[in-house]
Amino acid sequence: MSVRELVVLGTASQVPTRHRNHNGYLLRWDGEGILFDPGEGTQRQMLRAGVAAHDLNRICVTHFHGDHSLGLAGVIQRINLDRVPHEVTAHYPRSGQRFFNRLRYATAYRETVELVEAPVSADGVIAEPGGYTLEARKLSHPVESYGYRLIEPDGRRMLPDRLAAHGIKGPDVGRLQREGVLGGVSLDDVSETRRGQRFAFVMDTRLCDGVYALAEGCDLLVIESTFLDEDEQLAVEHGHLTSGQAARVARDAGVRHLVLTHFSQRYSEPDAFEQQARAAGFEGELTVAHDLQRVPVPKRR
Fold first, then answer.
1. What would the pLDDT profile of 135-159 be if each residue is shown by its tens digit?
2. Identified catalytic residue from 37, 55, 67, 219
3. Active-site residue 154, yes or no?
4. For residue 116, how many other CB atoms are within 10 A of its CB?
5. What is the mean pLDDT of residues 216-228?
6. What separation, in Å, do the N-terminal and C-terminal C-alpha atoms of the chain show?
7. Three-state DSSP class for 173?
8. Of all residues in the chain, what percent carry a pLDDT higher than 70?
9. Does the pLDDT at position 1 exceed 60?
10. What angle do CA 74, 75, 76 make, to 5 degrees?
11. Where does residue 202 fall: left (phi above 0), alpha (psi -120 to 50 degrees), or beta otherwise?
12. Burial code of 42-63, b = ≥16 C-beta within 10 A, e = fewer?
């Protein structure tokens, strides 16, 4: 059975709190697991959330600030300790190669797993493993940062009433799907486009073109909301978003489910983030993330 869900491992920003671990997010997408921004403590949060090293196929680091990457050393060593039976691919800004090298070899351990380094240096497609395309877009932060976007190809949805009208049933349905035409009836005559699902992960950034490109038409958007709107000047100075800015991006991009995360330790009341997001006009599903939460990808329209 295919599972598509976000497992939230940590939701703090620069400083963890009693209730929020540093960043960490696992996207389960059918049989694959993509780990985003493993901050300090990710390995323990994985244990608490029931996520194993064997679940990881890909690691995506947006940038090399500690709250987004200091857990990388432990995660890589755990992958090797557990002898994960498949290769694991790591994406990260090429400009941070020296940081990746230091984290990968922070201490002595035995390498047992093939870790494929696939650094990112420009906007565009970075992987096409089959079943989805993974893209990266540059963001606006004091250090080079990239957001990530997963796109499932469009498919076809068979329409029972049209199949019945043309007398097509049983094995002939599969034959029509494979061959595209059967007895003068085309696939277009009895089906419609089924839009592929889309997921985006947007961390530390000011508003920029990359934010909007990543969010466009997403079924599930995970986006930083470090500051409340009254601290917008601080957000601009430090390269972050406010809850209202994130929500307006989601509203304008037609996002179905918005997940706000990466909260500054200065705030103790999470309800304010939801209130400001709603005040900004976002009317879709909304989650103010907390640690160890599971958020399902919305079902297809």
1. 999 999 999 999 999 999 998 889 8
2. 67
3. no
4. 10
5. 98
6. 19
7. helix
8. 100
9. no
10. 95
11. beta
12. bbebbeebebebebbbbbbbbb
Instruction: Write down how long the chain is.
Output: 301
**SS3 readout for 249-262:** HHHHHCCCEEEEEC
Total Cβ atoms within 10 A of residue 237 = 11
Answer for the pair 36, 27: CB distance below 8 angstroms, yes or no: yes
Using DSSP's 3-state secondary structure scheme, residue 43 falls into: helix
Mean pLDDT of the chain: 96
Query: Which pTM does this prediction carry?
Result: 0.93
The pLDDT, as a whole number, for residue 62 is: 98
User: What is the residue whose two structure tokens read 């064997």?
Assistant: 54
Instruction: Identify whether the C-beta of residue 261 lies closer than 8 Å to the C-beta of residue 233.
Output: no
With a CB cutoff of 8 Å and minimum separation 6, the contacts of 63 are 69, 93, 96, 139, 141, 143, 144, 145, 146, 203, 204
